[in-house]
């Protein structure tokens, strides 16, 4: 029979690779609590309209990457490509509005039909943080503080916060017109992809990954020339807040977000360590999104980060080790060892049992498991109510009363 295969672009991880993901999530959970973000859970599947209406038909995510299917009832369902839209749907349909403003965070799988490559998968994992119902620039500052502290705790060095504003709707539409004009006049120099975006979403050309587009992008008009006083004032308050909090940032006047719903603050934390996938965390303010889902006008700001991309950049996580490994010799010893093992674990001591192989093999397994002690239980020792405790670091071995075993392996 042909052996079964995984779905393209999915991952199955054992040991260190899985530990890396867990380490990123643990840091996220720690910092989330420090910043007072509530944990939320949202479904993996939503009605397709939730993503089509928010992310925008002209983005790659909606036009090429969505995992959509018809369910048995004929409804169009999509596996979430990101969290924001689902959280906003819940904000509207689950009455979360009554708690506004809310600071919420979650993490889990996201799905995009992409060409798999290093750091790019079809099922990947994201961290996500959102502040919904708050239009104050302080919300942007707090959210960026969360992101910066997370990256700092993960010791991801060289991640730089690139910051831009997309202004208010008035600013954005004036800038959009100017960009449209600029790119149209040089359309012949643009890549096919960018020419296709020209009419529907000229902002996205700024985001182009095609080298051919870069000279045209570099000479494109910058948003500063179009900022209304209100928009400039908002951006000024965000940058002042960041400076006051000691968060380093760099202005990136052509930074836009791939998704259509952003206003005001847009940002990415970028590194040069992952080649083409240099963005490790990205987000911005999306004051228009909840309305586009049929909810009330609601200001909101958020970010998402790819867990796999962060996991590639952290140090090797500390191995999970057993404090003690039991080696029972003989049948009676095995029963006694089960008891000792259960007692150790109930007391909160990580312990394991080597129940196969000769003595030498079992001792070397205990060593590999990083154990500090081996507890050898033989029939003769049992008759005396004792077991042998071997300190693997010093090689010293001594008899210990069964009642004192826990204390003996806890002691340094
Ligand atoms: P890219 O430009 O790399 O395609 P994106 O703009 O599509 O990224 P976002 O929609 O902003 O990415 O998603 C936020 C984060 O999720 C990214 O910064 C990245 O770390 C991660 N991410 C996005 N797509 C993938 C994927 N296919 N595999 C792994 N991680 C991903
Ligand atoms: Mg993408």
List keywords for this structure.
elongated; 22% strand; BirA Bifunctional Protein, domain 2; five-stranded mixed beta sheet; alpha+beta; 412 residues; binds adenosine-5'-triphosphate; binds magnesium ion; single chain; 2 domains; Rossmann fold; 37% helix; eight-stranded mixed beta sheet
Q: What's the arrangement of secondary structure elements?
A:
Layout lengths: L15 H19 L3 E2 L5 E3 H8 L4 H6 L1 E4 L5 E4 L4 H10 L8 E10 L11 E10 L4 H17 L6 E6 L3 H17 L6 H6 L16 H5 L10 H17 L4 E2 L11 E8 L8 E7 L3 H4 L7 E7 H5 L12 E6 L1 H16 L4 E3 L5 H10 L4 E6 H5 L2 E6 L5 E5 L3 H6 L2
Parallel strand pairs: 1-5, 7-8, 12-13, 12-14
Antiparallel strand pairs: 2-4, 3-4, 5-6, 6-11, 7-9, 9-10, 10-11, 14-15, 15-16
Helix pairs in contact: 1-5, 5-9
The structure holds adenosine-5'-triphosphate and magnesium ion.
Adenosine-5'-triphosphate binds next to strand 6, strand 10, strand 11 and helix 11.
Task: Give a brief description.
By secondary structure, the chain is α+β, with helices and mostly antiparallel strands. It is built from 15 helices and 16 strands.
Your description of this structure?
Helix 12 links the parallel strand 12 (324-329) and strand 13 (351-353). The two termini are 53 Å apart. The model has no long low-confidence stretch (mean pLDDT 91). Helix 1 runs antiparallel to helix 5 and helix 5 packs parallel to helix 9 (229-245). With 412 residues, the chain is α+β, with helices and mostly antiparallel strands. The chain has helices at 16-34, 48-55, 60-65, 84-93, 137-153, 169-185, 192-197, 214-218, 229-245, 289-292, 307-311, 331-346, 359-368, 379-383, 405-410; strands at 38-39, 45-47, 67-70, 76-79, 102-111, 123-132, 160-165, 250-251, 263-270, 279-285, 300-306, 324-329, 351-353, 373-378, 386-391, 397-401. It contains 15 helices and 16 strands. The longest helix is centred in the first third of the chain and has 19 residues, at 16-34. The protein binds adenosine-5'-triphosphate and magnesium ion (MG). Adenosine-5'-triphosphate (ATP) binds at residues 82, 112, 114, 119-121, 124, 126, 258, 277, 279-280, 282, 304-306, 308-309. L-histidine binds at residues 82-84, 112, 126, 130, 257, 261-262. Its EC number is 6.1.1.21.
């Amino acid at each position: 029979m042909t052996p079964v295969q995984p779905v393209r672009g999915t991952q199955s991880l054992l040991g260190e690779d899985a530990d890396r993901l867990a380490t990123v999530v643990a840091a996220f959970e720690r910092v989330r609590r420090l910043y007072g973000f509530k944990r939320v859970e949202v479904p993996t599947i939503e009605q397709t309209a939730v993503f089509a209406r928010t992310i925008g038909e002209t983005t790659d995510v909606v036009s090429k990457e969505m995992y959509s299917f018809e369910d048995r009832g004929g409804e169009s369902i999509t596996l979430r490509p990101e969290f924001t839209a689902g959280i906003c749907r819940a904000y509207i349909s689950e009455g979360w509005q009554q708690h506004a403003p809310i600071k919420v965070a979650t993490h889990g799988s996201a799905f995009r039909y992409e060409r798999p490559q290093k750091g790019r998968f079809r099922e990947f994992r994201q961290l996500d943080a959102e502040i919904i119902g708050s239009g104050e620039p302080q919300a942007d500052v707090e959210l960026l503080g969360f992101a910066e502290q997370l990256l700092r705790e993960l010791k991801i060095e060289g991640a730089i916060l690139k910051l831009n504003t997309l202004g208010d709707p008035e600013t954005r539409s004036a800038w959009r017109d100017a960009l449209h004009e600029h790119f149209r006049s040089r359309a012949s120099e643009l890549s096919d992809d960018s020419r296709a975006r020209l009419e529907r979403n000229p902002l996205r050309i700024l985001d182009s990954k095609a080298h051919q587009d870069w000279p045209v992008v570099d000479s494109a008009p910058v948003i500063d020339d179009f900022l209304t006083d209100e928009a400039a004032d908002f951006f000024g308050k965000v940058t002042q807040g960041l400076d006051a909090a000691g968060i380093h940032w760099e202005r990136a006047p052509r930074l836009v977000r791939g998704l259509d719903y952003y206003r005001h603050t847009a940002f990415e934390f970028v590194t040069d360590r992952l080649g083409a996938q240099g963005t490790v965390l990205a987000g911005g303010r999306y004051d228009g999104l909840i309305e586009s889902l049929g909810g009330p006008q609601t200001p909101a700001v958020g970010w998402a980060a790819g867990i796999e991309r962060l996991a590639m950049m952290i140090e090797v996580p500390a191995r999970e080790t057993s404090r003690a490994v039991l080696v029972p010799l003989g049948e009676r010893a095995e029963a006694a060892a089960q008891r000792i093992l259960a007692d150790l674990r109930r007391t909160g001591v990580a312990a394991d049992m080597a129940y196969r192989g000769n003595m030498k093999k079992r001792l070397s397994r205990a060593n590999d498991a990083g154990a500090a002690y081996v507890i050898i239980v033989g029939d003769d020792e049992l008759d005396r109510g004792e077991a042998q405790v071997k300190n693997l670091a010093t090689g010293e071995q001594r008899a210990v009363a069964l009642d004192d075993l826990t204390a003996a392996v806890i002691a340094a």
